[in-house]
Every structure is written in C-alpha cells, then in structure tokens.
Design brief:
- The complex is a heterotrimer of chains A (335), B (548) and C (172).
- With 335 residues, chain A is mainly α.
- Helix content of chain A is 61%, strand content 1%.
- Chain A is built from 13 helices and 2 strands.
- Chain A has a two-stranded antiparallel sheet.
- Chain A is elongated.
- In chain B, 47% of the residues lie in helices and 6% in strands.
- In chain B, α3 crosses α4 and α15 packs across α24.
- In chain B, strands 1-3-2-4-5 form a 5-stranded parallel sheet. A 4-stranded parallel sheet of chain B has the order 7-6-8-9, sandwiched between helices.
- Chain B is built from 25 helices and 9 strands.
- Chain B folds into 2 domains: 177 residues, no CATH class; 316 residues, no CATH class.
- Chain C is mainly alpha-helical.
- Chain C has one domain.
- The radius of gyration of chain C is 21 Å and the shape is globular.
- Classes of the chains: A mainly alpha (335), B mainly alpha (548), C mainly alpha (172).
- Chains B and C meet through α1, α5, α13, α21 and α22 of B and α3, α4, α7, α8 and α9 of C.
- Chain B: GO terms for molecular function: 4 iron, 4 sulfur cluster binding; metal ion binding; oxidoreductase activity.
- Chain B: This is Putative sulfite reductase-associated electron transfer protein DsrK.
- Chain B: InterPro entries: 4Fe4S_Fe-S-bd, 4Fe4S_Fe_S_CS, Cys_rich_dom, Helical_ferredxn.
Chain lengths: 335, 548, 172
C-alpha cells in the first residue's frame, strides 16, 4: 500500500483512539475536553494571524495580475471589467466570484464540455472537481455555522432558519441535515480522486491526505453521534457553553466518541495554520488576482526599488562614435 | 524512457495501478533535444553576473562555487521577503490538479514533471524543508521529510531545477485555471534568478542579454549596421511602391520614439513587419506631418533580461526612458512583441519610472488620449493603428491581402499579462477579408504558447520546441483544414521566428505574418506606383500573370 | 466467417486496446491525461493518436493495401513521437503491438496474410519516422539561416556567421 496515504490514515486513527481510550479508559475528560480545545484555538488564532502577517510583511514590488480578458484601451473597444479590471470595483467582483464561486476552477470545466465529432456532448471528470470543491466548502461552512448553536444562548433565529433549510428533506429522527451528509460524501470524493486518478495521485503528498482523513473522521463521528449513538445534547450544550464562558465543566453521561470528535476538531484547528489549508487566507492576498491591470495608467511603487548599473548613451556613443559618424548617424559629441 | 528499453519491455513495465509517487527521489535525466547549451563565460561576464565559467550540463561537475547551497538558501530567503507572490505561491497550493493538463510542454512532451504544479513543487519541496516550521520539525523524525513533502537541496535537485525551469516559457496559461491564481511564470522567474546566482544560465539568453547591454540589441547589431538594414528595407520598399520611405534615426525633438524588437530588423519574416512600420510612418509623415524616430541605442524592444533576473531586466529596460529623455520626444510607441509588452505593461514604470519628462500620450492625428498609458507613456502600435483606422485616417486597399486567409495567434504575454486581444483583430479585419478564429479554448486568455518563448528559441532544443508547440500547431491545422487558412497572424517577434519553424514541421502550408505586414501591404502611400508585389516580393493577388 | 470479417466485427475492441497500449508508452501519470478522449484541442497527442490508429486500421482491413495511404495515415502519430525523445524502436514499436492485440482479442487466431500487412505497415511507419527526423535536422540547419534576413547576406555582413551557425546546429 501507499505510505503517502497509509501514514496519514494511521495518524488519524491514532488520534481517534487516543482520545477515545483516554476518556473511556483513563478518564481524562478534563484533558481532551478542556485543555486541548483551548490550546488548539490559541494555536489556530495565533498561527493564522502569524501566517497572514508573514505574507503581508512581504513586499508587492510589481503589479502583475493575470489578465483573462480584454484590457481597458480605446474607448470603443469593450473592456472585460471583471477578468481584466482596471478599477477597484472590478477587482472586488473578480475576487467575489473567485472566493464564492471558484471561478477559475470553473474555467477548467468549460474546457471539459465539448462536442465530439458526432456532435454529441462529451464531458470529463473536471466538472466534478469544481462541483466537489463547491459542495465540500459550502457544506463545511453550513456545518460550522450550524454548530454555533452550541456556543450561543439563546440560539439566534437566523441559525434556526438555516437548520430548517438544512433539514428540509425531513428524513429520519432526528431529522437529517443535508450539509453533514454532503460534507462526508464530498470529502470522500476528493479523497477518491487523489487515490485513483493517476495524475492527481502522482502530485499528492501525505500532507494532502491528512486533512482529508481528519475531516472525514470528524464528519463521520459527528454523524454517528447525532443519528446513531444519539448523545446527550443538553449535556454537550452545557459543556460547550462552559468553554466559551471560561467556566469549563465536564458533563456526565457524554462518552468517548464525543471527546474523539472534539479532539479531531482540535487537531484540525491546530494543524490549520501550518498547512496548505491556509489557502483560505492566501486567496485574499494573491497578487495575480487581487490587483487591477492599470499599470500603464497608474504607477505602482516598488518599496525596495534600487538603482542599477546601466550602459549609458554616453558610453555607447564613445564606443561607436566613428562608425556612427561614418554612417551619417547624429552624435552628441563630434570628437 | 531510457534508450535501451524496447517497446515491449516498456509496455510490460507500465502497470495500471496508481503511481507510488516517487517523483521526489527520481533523479533527473537531461536529454539532448530538450535542453539549451550553457551560457558562455564571456556573456555572463559582460554584466558582471556571478560564476562565469565554461560548463556543460551533460557533465557531472557543474563547477559550482563551494558554498552554493548557502547562496541558494539566502537567495530564497531574500526573495521570500521581497516578493509576496513567491511566498504565497509557496504556501497555498493544494495540489488540486486543475493546472496539470493546461501546460503545452506537458501536453506535447508527456513528461509529468512538466505539469505546472510539479514544476512548482520542485522548488516548493525545498522551501518546505528549509523554511517552514512543519518542515523543520518533521526533518527530525526519520521519514518525516516525506510526510511533509520536503526534501533537502542536493545537486540532483539543483540539476532538476535547471532542466525544468528552462522548459517553461512563462506563458501563464496555468495561472488562468488556478483557483488561487498561482502563476508558474512567477515561480520559474524566481527559479531562474536563483540559478543565475550560481551562473547557471543558458546561452540563448545570456548572449543576447550581453549583446543588448553593450550594443543596444540582442543580436549585437552595431549602429551603422542597424542603419544599413533599414536602408536595405528602404530600397526594397522603393522597388515595390516607388516611394522612398527612409526612416530617421536618433533624431532629437521628434514627436515619437519608436522601439521594436530587433528580431523585426534582422530575422525573417519579422523583417516584413518592420517594413510595414516604415510604410506606416512614411504615410503619417506625408499626410499628417507626424515625426517618428528610431534609435540605434534603444534598438531593442525585447528584454531577455526578463528571463534572467528582475535586476537584469531593469538594466536593459532602462535604455527606453533614457533615450526618450535624451531625444526629448513626447511619448514612446512600441512595436509588435510579446514579452516586451509584459515588461512595459507590468514592470517598466515601476522599475524605471516615473517618466515625468514625457507627455501623456495623445494621438496627434485623431486627438485620442491613450488614457490607459497616461503614466507609462508608451503605446502599443496596434492600439495606435487601430485608433487611426477607426477614425478613417488610413487609406487601405484590402484587396492586396486577398490571397491571405488569416487566423490570429494571441501571444501569451499580451494576452495574459496585458489583455491586448481585440486591437490586433480589429486591424486584421480592416486590412484583410478572410479571417477565421481558432477554437475558443486555444485563443485569447486560453491561448497556447508557441513553445519557444522566455528565451527557449534555440536550435539545440528543437524537439522540445516542436513538442511544446504542438497544441498551438494542432489548432492551426484545424482551421487550415476546415477554412483553408494559409496565414497565421501574430504580434510577437519570437512568434514570428518560432511559429515559422513550427508550421514548417506541423502545418507546412501556413505562413506567419506580423499584423503590420498586412498594414504595409494594404496602405496606399501618397504618390505610389501601382504595386505588383507584396512586401515578400511575391506577386499580389490578380497580378500573378503580369509577373511571368 | 473469414478472418477479415472477424476483425471487422471486433474492430472497436481492437482499436481501443491498440490505443491504450500506445498511450501507455508514456509515463503512467501522463497516460492518464492523454488517454482521456477529451477535446482534441486540449489533448492533441491523445486525439491525434486515436485518430491515426483508427484510420490506419481501417486501411489494413481493405483487400489491397495502399502503403502510401497507410504512411500518410500514420503521419500524425509518428510526427508527434519523432519529437518526444523516443528512440526509433520506441517510436514505431506500437505497430507490432497490433499483432499481439489481435491474437488476444480473437483468442489465439491469427492469419499470415494479415501479419504480413502489419509488417508492411511497420516499414511504412519507420519510413515516416525517418522522414520526420530528417525534417527536424533540416529545420535545425535552415532555421538559423532564416534568422538572418537575406538582406544581411546580400550586404555580405553575415557570410562568416552563417557557416558558424550551421556548424553550431550540427553539434548536438
């Protein structure tokens, strides 16, 4: 088997067992339920800020957006204001589309939809990367927002509203939340793609599998608690409220599965700032996307611009003066 | 695929299970036909760049300085602070694979290390090992390196960098598809800068850079020879049109300084484009008294310094503003060139500006203000000509291009580093009746590179160039077969040279034209004789009989 | 049913397998990409290979084979392989694969006449490969000449340079 994904898989299983056994066997609820989450949140916030500050500390010497459409030029030529923006408003739109709709990734799928020689519509797997990525990120977002109900008292009505829509299929008891299922499926799809697509498998690293396994573990344990083991929601709410109000309590009757869930979430938080997951912050700062293509109209200043040696016209003329005079070219100095 | 393997054995060797992902440990095989010769020491010395010596990539010893690892390490560190692009692109890639099949070199050569993501990973793996907290921690655990995707900088890794960073044309096509806008061109630029710290350039870049620095242009044409060349063109044009279009050189107080890549002056078929410019300037002089001057000092629009390092780019580019200032012109007009325009559009003003000694460019004939160039003060000739045509200022006889069935190749740099897409098309449509676009996924921002850009247009790597140019040639072949296209228009000097060879191999019936060659043929000069020939001295459509 | 009819009947399977084998002469990560029958402009190598193989197989099925036509049909695939740093045997070896594939698909059955046709096709492929390689060498030699405008030559500015450049391009 491939150690690129076997090692991360083993790692995630280990994390799970560690928390489960630690709670069920050694009774270390206070450690996995209180210390670890606090440490993880501190690591997450601190690491995230440090990373973003690190990027921000690097200079942006040149304005080098990737232009994906017609530039602003003569008044009668129609500019593509979003893909080749020259104003902040265009850049804003470009970023919004990029961040919320993964627009560049969608470009990929356009090339995949084509008509073959018999004029039949053909497509390839690329569309699923875009769909899979959207499904994954949005369901994750909904799941996170939904979990806010554990940290807020009273639960705001907009959250109840969201839950209503998330549970609209009305399946099972307690009602199925679509987001959880979609998150699990999308993560499994992204994992399958990494394992079975030779091209993607070739470029994948252990660091690409680890967060996927972790998220799959988190989603699976969450679903298991809600639908199968049916944990004590009231107990958990008192626990989470304790965490946010800095009066942590360990509730009775909440089992190891819950602590394993919390531990994996903590691991994800702590791992986040040192990993590729930082693309969440990076996308906002990517200079090929967040800058306007108006260099020729508005000078961009390079903070570390320094003077360089150049071959001056005087040196040039000194070198070639005779030949220039012979050829009838004008010169500055005759002798 | 090593040379000893028979196809049968090869097929047996290939299994269908997913790869074990060993790219990090496979050592690089440098193949003839795929790489360019090493830079000659003389050329490296001219600009005082480090470690000038003669060396051969095929030999084991690359004659590196003893502390080369330290030099590279410090070089990376320095650049991480100076370029946010570099730092972010090292950190945020999630290896989604969207870019993998977007690279013409990958599609053409089939070498998996030509996938853009992997090209970047070559550098990223070292970055992760030496510059990230996770990498530094993991190093301490046995096998931890592999988990974090890091690897130490060894000689093999360095050789791999050299081989693959000189198999990238910095075309930015992958960057269009990346959800984070990661630009492999930027990574290649950094990679080449680092390699140049050790004197690891290729000769096809180093020698033009050295020439350009000393004589003002890549070929090293001296001032009198530069003038001679344009004089020859003047003679040819007089033979064709009966009009003397002699250009002006280094003229102080002219309205406009014109700068074009020297390829247009010395290499066919760019020379015909150059003749097109000369005819246009003569027309504007006679009709509207517009005074355009050429310069022998700033006689190069292209900038191979861009393929060496930011600093070298700046040193070569400085001549444009310096010459404009010395001559006291109002603004600068730039010829048809690809990377030259990336440099002008995205770097020049920042590096060598502000050009406050020039005026905000206005077309004196039409009154159009070139708002988009008001700071840099340099206008692209297709913007200029399109404006003239739109205002009806040019008398054009389209029938002289009637035998041209055109398609248009968007050059990478104007397309993805500028967005100059519709201006040249407008000129084509006004100088020629037959114009067919190539398929949509091969033009405009999705255009395929010629396979020879970024200094890779050498002779010794012709297999690489032909393979890399295949996706482009394939689209040309399609319009050739379907619409009878016989002419590939382009606005880049490297394209004009490289695509000619590419077409000869893949689609031999297609010729390569610059856009201003079409203008030169169609433009009716005041007082001209009835033309029998086009600029290539071939009979004009309808004049074939008369020729015999 | 005679041999040719059987081939006709199993044509799709044979061609598909032949394509697969040919594409698998690339590194497997690459084969994954090239093997996808996608847009011909996004994947020129894959589509040219598929098209070329199908066309040549159809020509083989005809009673009298026209070797010139076969060579032309093979052009697009060979022309690509001639610049991909395959050795000569690797570049044309895919033709012989066809024998094995037919034998497998038709469960051991083979036909001497048809094998002969495949041999002829292999020779045609080799011819075409040599032509492409000659083409490459010629391009190398003439390109440097074209880089210098003929007016330079007329002016006698580059006679020396010309010879040197030509020699340079032979060096590799």
């Amino acid at each position: 088997m491939n150690q690129k994904y076997m090692v991360p898989l083993a790692g995630v299983l280990l994390l799970f067992l560690l928390a489960y056994a630690g709670v069920e066997g050694a009774g270390m609820q206070w450690f996995f339920g209180i210390i670890v989450p606090y440490v993880a949140v501190i690591a997450f916030v601190g690491g995230f800020v440090r990373r973003v500050m690190g990027w921000a500390a690097s200079a942006v010497p040149f304005r080098i957006p990737t232009t994906c459409g017609q530039q602003k030029s003569l008044p009668w030529i129609k500019q593509n204001c979003i893909d080749n923006p020259d104003k902040a408003s265009g850049v804003f739109m470009r970023m919004v589309l990029e961040i919320f709709l993964f627009r560049s990734l969608f470009r990929n799928t356009k090339a995949a939809f084509n008509r073959n020689e018999k004029n039949k519509l053909t497509y390839s797997w690329e569309i699923f990367l875009w769909v899979g990525a959207l499904a994954f990120h949005y369901s994750f977002l909904v799941v996170i927002i939904r979990h806010l109900r554990f940290f807020l008292e009273p639960v705001p009505s907009c959250l109840k509203f969201l839950e209503f829509f998330d549970g609209i299929v009305q399946l099972g008891l307690p009602g199925l939340f679509i987001s959880g299922a979609v998150l699990l499926l999308a993560a499994l799809f992204l994992l399958a793609r990494r394992i079975f697509d030779a091209k993607v498998s070739y470029i994948s690293l252990a660091a690409d599998y680890f967060p996927l396994f972790l998220i799959i573990g988190i989603a699976a344990s969450g679903i298991a608690m809600r639908y199968f083991t049916k944990v004590d929601i009231i107990g958990i709410k008192s626990f989470t409220m304790g965490l946010v109000t800095f009066h942590p309590v360990i509730p009775d009757g909440v089992g190891g599965l819950f602590y394993a869930h919390i531990f994996m979430v903590s691991a994800l938080f702590a791992y986040f700032p040192v990993s590729k997951l930082m693309h969440m912050g990076g996308i906002f700062l990517s200079p090929t996307r967040n800058m306007a293509n108006n260099n020729r109209a508005k000078r961009h200043v390079n903070p570390w611009n320094y003077a360089v040696d150049i071959h001056t016209y005087e040196q040039y003329e000194d070198h070639f003066r005779e030949k220039m005079i012979d050829a009838g070219l004008p010169v500055d100095k005759k002798e | 695929m090593s040379d000893e393997l028979k196809p049968d054995e090869l097929l047996d060797k290939v299994d269908h299970t997913p790869s074990q992902g060993t790219w990090m440990t496979e050592s690089v095989q440098i193949r003839p036909g795929m790489y360019c010769y090493a830079a000659k020491p003389e050329s490296v010395e001219t600009l005082g760049l480090p470690n000038a010596r003669s060396w051969n990539p095929m030999e084991a010893d690359w004659k590196l300085p003893e502390n080369w690892q330290e030099i590279i390490h410090n070089g990376i560190k320095d650049r991480l602070e100076k370029f946010r692009t570099f730092k972010i692109f090292m950190d945020v890639c999630v290896r989604c694979g969207a870019c993998a099949d977007k690279c013409h070199f990958f599609l053409g050569t089939g070498d998996p290390k030509n996938m853009p993501v992997l090209r970047a990973e070559l550098l990223r793996s070292v970055y992760r090992n030496d510059f990230t907290t996770a990498g530094k921690l993991l190093q301490k655990i046995p096998g931890g390196d592999k988990l974090g995707g890091g690897r130490p900088l060894t000689l093999d890794v360095l050789k791999e960098w050299w081989y693959y960073f000189f198999q990238c044309t910095e075309c930015r096509r992958c960057s269009v598809f990346c959800p984070y806008g990661i630009d492999t061109a930027e990574i290649t630029i950094m990679g080449r800068e680092l390699l140049n710290l050790l004197g690891l350039n290729i000769d096809w870049i180093a020698t033009p850079v050295s020439n350009c620095y000393q004589t003002g242009n890549h070929l090293g044409i001296q001032p009198h020879a530069f003038k001679d060349m344009l004089d020859f063109f003047t003679e040819d044009i007089e033979e064709i049109t009966g009009v003397d279009v002699a250009p002006q050189f280094n003229k102080k107080g002219a309205d406009i300084l014109f700068i074009t890549p020297s390829g247009d002056v010395f290499a066919d078929p760019g020379t015909y484009t150059c003749q097109g410019y000369m005819i246009l300037f003569k027309y504007l002089k006679d009709k509207y008294d517009l005074d355009v001057t050429w310069s022998t000092y700033a006689s190069e629009g292209g900038n191979f310094g861009f393929f060496t390092s930011h600093e070298t780019m700046k040193r070569l580019n400085a001549k444009m503003y310096a010459e404009a200032k010395r001559l006291g012109v109002k603004w600068i007009l730039g010829g048809e060139c690809g990377h030259m325009w990336r440099v002008i559009n995205q770097y020049m003003d920042t590096m060598n500006g502000p050009a406050d000694f020039l005026e905000e460019p206005v077309n004196p004939i039409t009154g159009t203000k070139f708002e988009n160039a008001k700071s840099t003060k340099m206008v692209h000739i297709t913007e200029f000509t399109a404006d003239l045509i739109k205002h009806g200022k040019l008398e054009l006889d389209k029938s002289r291009n009637a035998n041209r069935v055109m398609t248009f190749h968007d050059s990478c740099n104007p397309a993805r580093g500028m967005g100059l897409l519709d201006e040249p098309r407008y000129i084509i449509e006004n100088t020629c009746d037959n114009f067919y676009e190539m398929p949509i996924n091969t033009i405009r921002e999705q255009t395929f590179c010629c396979g020879s850009g970024a200094g890779l247009n050498a002779g010794e790597n012709i297999e690489l160039r032909m393979a890399g140019g295949l996706p482009r040639a394939n689209a040309v072949k399609y319009v050739h077969d379907k619409f009878g296209v016989n002419t590939l228009g382009t606005i880049c000097a490297i394209d004009r040279a490289a695509l000619s060879t590419l077409m000869e191999y893949w689609v031999p019936d297609v010729e390569v034209y610059g856009i201003h060659e079409l203008v030169g043929n169609a433009l009716i000069l005041p007082g001209e004789q009835e033309r029998e020939m086009d600029l290539r001295m071939e009979p004009l459509p309808g004049k074939e009989e008369a020729d015999e | 049913m005679n041999f040719n009819q059987k081939l006709e009947q199993n044509k799709k399977q044979i061609i598909d397998q032949w394509f697969l084998h040919t594409i698998n002469s690339y590194p497997q990560e690459t084969a994954r990409v090239l093997g996808k029958l996608k847009n011909r402009f996004d994947n020129p190598v894959g589509s040219a290979t598929a098209h070329s193989l199908e066309e040549s197989f159809n020509l083989l099925l005809q009673k009298e084979i026209d070797i010139d036509k076969i060579e032309t049909a093979l052009d697009s695939i060979i022309r690509i392989r001639a610049v991909q740093s395959f050795s000569a045997s690797q570049a044309v070896g895919f033709v012989f694969e066809l024998k094995k594939i037919i034998k497998t698909v038709l469960e051991g059955e083979r036909d001497n006449d048809f094998d002969g046709k495949i041999d002829e096709m292999a020779l045609a492929a080799f011819n075409r490969f040599m032509k492409c390689r000659e083409n490459i060498f010629l391009l190398k030699a003439t390109e440097s000449k074209r880089r210098i405008h003929s007016a330079f030559e007329r002016a006698g500015l580059v006679t020396e340079l010309k010879e040197k450049e030509l020699l340079d391009s032979d060096k590799s």
